């Protein structure tokens, strides 16, 4: 009987298809047999690439390059000879040291075989074809495709030496990768304009097929195991921004300031990976901030997000003369500091960050010359820079560098917060502000630096803060203080620091009148400050001593958007809450209202629901007499009673009797659902009234013990009548 092998052949064919046919990632290529010679031989046959091919053979690299898939960017002999003569003073690659030859060859080679069109797109799709890769809305220059600006070469860059400013020792910094920049025009996205390229590389010409400042004379040359793209010149080995800042005199001042924050950590992995018996000790260099650490790194981003090569860091660096003149004229000449070296690190760090636009959180791409004008800087604030401000440009391994003739002063230096920077007596608060802005990504203090929004700052001096035990441990990077409520030393968490700063800042109003009573809403949610008779009252300070207000010692109006006041005490947040006071049986004035809340079961369970999701609110508490006089209007049914009481909880607004707010507000209709009713507010200084839907009016009793309270989530107002929400 003849056996039928057809099903077996089918199964075998299916297995081979699954094994070899399912990977369509660009990194995986089956080498066709119809593409001719292997890549080095193919280049050799071109005739005008002999110097580059000779360099390959001199370092014994031919066999390796012809064994696997590669993309090579060989310079023509004309370009090679110009490089040899201009850079090394020789006329043939055989005259170069072996290490220089390795650097020359490997910095022009990229792993995997890629056509010009393929290399432009960034494969992060987990195996999809290049043409199917789609970007995310808002990233890159269009919402469609990702685009590369750089390709990782096979060159392993040598460590670079740097001097530790702390002890003068030379430390070698480990490097990770070397990149080759490419530039092109994409018809769908217009990702690069000719003017942008020519602005960065004025000695070259944009053709739509450029690698660095080189022109791809013959792109997309195919071989058996790769593509090669013939260039008109040699590409310089890209260095990280760190080495450029260190080597160029025009950046010396910036680099000197940057090195105030230099930190070195031993890199055991890089040290052990070195070849040979004698291994240098290699280090990693950082600057104590994610916004600055990238300067000494080759990699664009951490692997948290992967390598988004379409995005690049941007550095707008003032040249030394401009930066020195700025620091002298703004800080030293007016007498704030004796010399540039005396300017506090916390001010310098903010200044440096404003000039370094990192790719942190995937928010940045190349700030192209055509995009100069208004852009978001390193402190996430709007900056202005024109082409006329740019003195020179460079594309380095991890950044585009613009040498500029101006200083991009942060808003911290110009707004209501200006004295923090320019007066040494507030250095401790400046340090806290910097920590808060670093943790919150510039989302807190930035709210009082907007030139369109008037603001007020109430700030204690370093001396005042020291009286309260405020200290900073440089080694542990921890803040601590003496808790005035407990009398013990406490370490401040980042949340504590944020709340502390927020309580000292008022956004939306430049408080000028310190005599007339006014309740200022701070950045700290639900917390207000009372201002009257030239003094200041904070909730926590009142709880500690209700007879001693915080005094204003002086004011500074140099900021463009408000007034800065020095105060004689630290402002403390209130400990008392609305819940605490309503449940407090010692407060006889709230007795009858408390009984109603208890009868409705709100003090035990549902009361929290009344406050849920509210940063601040106003609770209207009728006097005992008002409740007794209106017993017939108070429902007995449990659910109706709860709805009746809910009307006394005014949502999302702390209303004080200072005449500041009048209008309509929401109150609760149901305890556990977001269903609201309206209440009308009529407000004049010392005369605050609430009117319900039926026209009943209740007036606030002016007694600071029971009304206009400074509580942690708003206030309580004692009123002379009940209100009905029907």
UniProtKB/TrEMBL annotation:
Residues 36-235, 413-571, 577-723 form the FAS1 domain. InterPro entries: Adhesion/Biosynth-related, FAS1_dom_sf, FAS1_domain. It holds the Pfam family Fasciclin. PROSITE patterns: FAS1, PROKAR_LIPOPROTEIN. This is FAS1 domain-containing protein. It comes from Fulvitalea axinellae. The lineage of its organism: Bacteria, Pseudomonadati, Bacteroidota, Cytophagia, Cytophagales.
């Amino acid at each position: 009987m003849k056996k039928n092998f057809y099903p077996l052949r089918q199964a075998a064919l299916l297995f081979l298809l699954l094994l070899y046919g399912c990977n369509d990632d660009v990194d995986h290529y089956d080498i066709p047999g119809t593409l001719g010679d292997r890549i080095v031989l193919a280049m050799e046959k071109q005739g005008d690439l002999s110097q580059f091919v000779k360099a390959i053979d001199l370092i014994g690299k031919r066999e390796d390059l012809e064994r696997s898939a590669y993309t090579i960017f060989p310079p023509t002999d004309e370009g090679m000879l110009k490089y040899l003569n201009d850079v090394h003073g020789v006329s043939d690659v055989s005259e170069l040291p072996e290490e220089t030859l390795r650097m020359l060859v490997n910095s022009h080679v990229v792993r995997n075989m890629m056509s010009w069109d393929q290399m432009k797109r960034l494969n992060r799709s987990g195996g999809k074809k290049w043409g199917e890769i789609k970007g995310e809305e808002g990233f890159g220059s269009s919402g469609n495709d990702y685009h590369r600006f750089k390709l990782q070469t096979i060159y392993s860059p040598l460590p670079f030496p740097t001097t530790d400013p702390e002890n003068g020792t030379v430390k070698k910094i480990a490097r990770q990768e070397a990149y080759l920049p490419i530039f092109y025009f994409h018809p769908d996205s217009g990702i690069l304009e000719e003017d942008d390229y020519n602005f960065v590389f004025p000695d070259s010409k944009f053709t739509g097929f450029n690698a660095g400042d080189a022109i791809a004379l013959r792109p997309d040359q195919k071989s058996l195991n790769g593509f090669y793209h013939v260039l008109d010149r040699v590409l310089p080995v890209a260095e990280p921004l760190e080495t450029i800042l260190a080597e160029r005199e025009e950046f010396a001042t910036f680099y000197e300031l940057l090195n105030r924050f230099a930190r070195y950590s031993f890199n055991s992995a890089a040290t052990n990976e070195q070849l040979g018996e004698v291994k240098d000790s290699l280090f990693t260099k950082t600057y104590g901030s994610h916004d600055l650490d990238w300067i000494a790194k080759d990699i664009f981003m951490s692997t948290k997000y992967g390598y988004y090569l379409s995005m690049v860091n941007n550095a707008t660096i003032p040249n030394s003369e401009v930066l020195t003149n700025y620091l002298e004229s703004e800080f030293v000449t007016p007498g704030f500091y004796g010399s540039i070296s005396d300017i506090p690190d916390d001010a310098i760090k903010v200044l440096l960050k404003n000039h370094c636009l990192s790719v942190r959180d995937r928010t940045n791409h190349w700030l192209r010359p055509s995009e100069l004008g208004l852009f978001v800087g390193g402190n996430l604030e709007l900056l202005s820079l024109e082409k006329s401000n740019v003195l020179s440009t460079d594309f380095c391994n991890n950044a585009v560098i613009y040498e500029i003739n101006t200083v991009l002063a942060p808003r911290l230096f110009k707004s209501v917060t200006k004295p923090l920077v320019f007066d040494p007596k507030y250095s401790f608060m400046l340090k806290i502000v910097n920590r808060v802005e670093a943790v919150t990504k510039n989302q807190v203090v930035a709210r009082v630096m907007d030139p369109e929004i008037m603001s007020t700052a109430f700030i204690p001096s370093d001396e005042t803060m020291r009286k309260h035990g405020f200290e900073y441990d440089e080694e542990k990077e921890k803040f601590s203080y003496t808790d005035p409520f407990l009398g013990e030393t406490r370490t401040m968490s980042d949340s504590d620091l944020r709340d502390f700063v927020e309580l000292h800042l008022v956004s939306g109003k430049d408080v000028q009148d310190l005599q007339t009573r006014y309740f200022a809403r701070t950045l700290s949610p639900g917390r207000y400050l009372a201002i009257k008779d030239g003094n200041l009252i904070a909730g926590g300070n009142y709880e500690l001593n209700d007879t001693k207000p915080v005094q204003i010692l002086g004011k500074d109006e140099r900021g463009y958007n408000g007034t800065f006041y020095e105060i004689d005490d630290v402002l403390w947040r209130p400990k008392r809450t609305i819940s605490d006071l309503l449940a407090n049986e010692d407060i006889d004035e709230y007795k009858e209202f408390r009984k109603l809340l208890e009868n409705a079961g709100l003090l035990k369970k549902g009361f929290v629901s009344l406050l849920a999701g509210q940063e601040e609110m106003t609770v209207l508490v009728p006097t005992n007499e008002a409740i007794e006089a209106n017993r017939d209007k108070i429902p007995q049914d449990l659910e109706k009673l709860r709805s009746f009481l809910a009307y006394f909880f005014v949502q999302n607004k702390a209303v004080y009797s200072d005449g500041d707010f009048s209008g309509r507000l929401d109150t609760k209709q149901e305890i556990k659902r977001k269903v609201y009713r309206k209440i009308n507010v009529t407000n004049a200084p010392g005369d605050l009234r609430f009117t319900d839907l039926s026209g009943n009016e209740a007036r606030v009793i002016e007694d600071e013990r029971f009304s206009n309270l400074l509580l942690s989530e708003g206030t309580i107002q004692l009123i002379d009548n009940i209100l009905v929400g029907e």
